[in-house]
Amino acid sequence: AAATPQISISQFHRIMGYASHESLKQSICNGEIIAPNINLNSELEFCSACVQAKAVTKPFPKHSDNESAKKYGDKVTGDIWGPAKVKSIGGSSYFTLF
């Protein structure tokens, strides 16, 4: 009979929806997860998905450092979105909103 190939704890981390390595190891050791083909001693790999998920942005300021607009058109703000996965009919990949 062929041996079941071992998978790393990092592979199992991805399979289990990016649960923490430590909670997975603890659940396996406590018998809460039966996973005989997991190599608990494998080296932890860098997980870019977890880093991106934990990334934070600065909060939107409650007060502007700039002067308030006195009349229509004094202040214009914009936002750009993209690149889009599918280009527009005209070949554009970005969207600008003013």
Give structural attributes:
two-stranded parallel ribbon; 98 residues; alpha+beta; two-stranded antiparallel sheet
> Which structural class fits the helix and strand makeup?
alpha+beta
Largest sheet: 2 strands, parallel
Succession of helices and strands: EHHEHEE
Strands, count: 4
Quickly count the domains: 1
Largest sheet strand order? 1-2
Report the β-strand fraction as a percent range. 5-15%
What spatial form do the alpha-carbon principal axes imply?
elongated
Mean pLDDT: 87
What is the share of helical residues? 10-25%
Protein name: GAG-pre-integrase domain-containing protein
Organism: Armillaria gallica (Bulbous honey fungus)
What does this structure look like?
- The protein is an alpha+beta fold.
- It has one domain.
- The chain has helices spanning 9-15, 21-29, 48-54, and strands spanning 7-8, 38-39, 79-81, 95-97.
- The strands form two sheets. The protein has a two-stranded parallel ribbon. Strands 3-4 form a two-stranded antiparallel ribbon.
- It is elongated, with a radius of gyration of 24 Å.
- The N and C termini lie far apart (66 Å).
- The mean pLDDT is 87.
Quick summary of this structure?
This protein has 98 residues and is of the alpha+beta class. 23% of the residues lie in helices and 10% in strands. The chain is elongated and about 75 Å long.
Topology (SSEs and partners):
Elements: E1 7-8, H1 9-15, H2 21-29, E2 38-39, H3 48-54, E3 79-81, E4 95-97
Parallel strand pairs: 1-2
Antiparallel strand pairs: 3-4
Protein name: GAG-pre-integrase domain-containing protein
